[in-house]
Amino acid sequence: MCPLCLKKEFRFIKSISAHNLAQIYSKELNFNTYNYIDQNLDLLECAVCSLQTWFPIISSPSELYSHLQNFSWYYQEHKWEYDICKKLVDKDKTILEVGCGTGSFRLHIKSGSYTGLEFNPTLQDPEIHNQTVESHSLERAAYYDCAFSFQVLEHTTCALTFLQGLGHSVKCGGTIAISVPFNSSYLQYADGFALNLPPHHLTRWHIPSLLYAAKILNCNLESLHFNKFNSLDYETRFVNDPETHIGNSVLAIYRKL
């Protein structure tokens, strides 16, 4: 069943064996995926919403993210999306950021009311809550002027409930901004790139899927923004002669109806 639209019509894209997956993660990240994935995985594309999902769906283990903290390049203090999204915020707006990490985005905005959601029980910060967006939206329905989620959606096991929670938390006329890896870029050919494979990335997003997401959010899709190609990006080493006209991630900005 598609985790975005719940339909069961798929097109086969490709497979990866548990053995090959383990080799990729071991070589690139020194992480053992055999502890979590012991079967072959199939990448299937939904015939309705075009979302690509690795099946069977396997939750990302917390041990993986703890391990990734050892790499200085993984948790970034600045992301290219910040430069666009900070223009959507002023000091009078209430802000929600889902998957906020340590809350670095708030340092780039002027809002007087910031709430972050992050699964990190060791993080002691009064503005950041160890809570899902699904449960948070029940407490603060139609509360926020703006909601942001940068490079989080591709990690979730159920995109539908994540987006429903995000949409439910924002006022009518409010703004929702979501960024994901753009798998219509050269990224789709980076087969040896561990971080674009389970158990790290569970889904792959393209423009039709982001358009479908607008229905779930009860929004209009207002604009799409793409990062610039950077030959120094880690991912480029896994692709021979990558396309350079577009970068490897996309930011979708929605307006709540």
In terms of per-residue confidence, which ranges show pLDDT below 50 for 5 or more consecutive residues?
Answer: none
CATH class: Alpha Beta
Supply the helix-strand structural class.
Answer: alpha/beta
Helix content: 10-25%
Q: Ends: how far apart?
A: 28 Å
Structure summary, number of beta strands? 11
The side-by-side strand order for the widest beta sheet comes to: 6-5-4-7-8-11-10
Mean pLDDT figure: 91
Strand content: 25-35%
In short:
With 257 residues, the chain is of the alpha/beta class. Helices cover 21% and strands 26% of the residues. The protein starts with 9 loop residues before the first strand and ends with a strand.
Structural account:
- The chain is globular and about 50 Å long.
- The longest helix is centred in the first third of the chain and has 12 residues, at 18-29.
- Strand 2 and strand 3 form a beta hairpin.
- The protein has a 7-stranded mixed sheet.
- The protein is built from 6 helices and 11 strands.
- The chain is 21% helix and 26% strand.
- The protein has one domain (10-70, 78-256): Rossmann fold (3-Layer(aba) Sandwich).
- The protein has helices at residues 18-29, 62-68, 80-85, 133-139, 159-168, 207-217; strands at 10-16, 41-46, 52-55, 94-98, 113-117, 128-129, 144-150, 170-181, 203-204, 219-226, 249-256.
- It has 257 residues and is of the alpha/beta class.
